[in-house]
Amino acid sequence: MGLFENDGAADLLDDLAAMPEERRLGALRGVLSTAAAERDYLEAPEGQMAVAAAALTAAARSRSACPAAAAYAPDLTVPVPPPQLAVLALHALDRVLAPDSELAELWDESDGGQEWLAHLARLRAELTGDADRGGEQGGDQADGRGADRGCGPVPRP
After folding, report:
1. What span, in angstroms and rounded, lies between the C-alpha atoms of 154 and 149?
2. pLDDT 10s digits, 30-44
3. pLDDT 10s digits, 80-120
4. What's the pLDDT at 77?
5. Which of 3, 7, 127, 134 has its CA 20 to 30 A from that of 121?
6. Nearest-CA neighbor of 28 among 6, 62, 7, 55?
7. Confidence (pTM)
């Protein structure tokens, strides 16, 4: 059910962990672009990777721990992405939710489909900034380290 609990996301995390940090935003952009630009049937693995890339983008924008960090990629860090990457992530999510998407079809046929859609709705809200409008400002730490950290392990106090 989780955004990273599938083979496509695991492949993406493995690929990101194997490359230098400065190349990771480009890799996320590539995954998101591939999904957003697909005009034919979007296969499930590409959809899974796009959802995971969107989740990593949202976490890096909010300067919080990567949502996959604890179980799947504990040392993965992603630099703070430019705003255009969040827009691309939204386009990729739209494509994943389109009628000619295998991942959307699979979830539509499952008992957990509505819960999956709720996860994606929360992810969309994070990408658009709607999740932050509840009064909490975007994750900067008092010592200023949060301002450019991006998505990565959050040190325990």
Report:
1. 10
2. 999 999 999 999 999
3. 999 999 999 999 999 999 999 999 999 999 999 999 999 99
4. 87
5. 7
6. 55
7. 0.83
As given in the structure block, the two tokens for residue 46 are 């590409």
What's the token pair of residue 6? 């599938």
For the record, the structure tokens of 137 come out as 């400002």
DSSP string across the chain: --TT-SHHHHHHHHHHHTS-GGGHHHHHHHHHHHHHH--S-B-HHHHHHHHHHHHHHHHHHHT---TTTTTT-TT--BPPPPHHHHHHHHHHHHHHTSTTBHHHHHHHTSTTHHHHHHHHHHHHHHHHTGGGGGS------TTSGGGTT-BSPPPP-
- The tokens for 69 are 């960090």
Residue entry with tokens 């009064």? 135
72: closest CA among 155, 148, 25, 8? 8
CA–CA distance, 149 with 69 (Å, rounded to integer)? 14
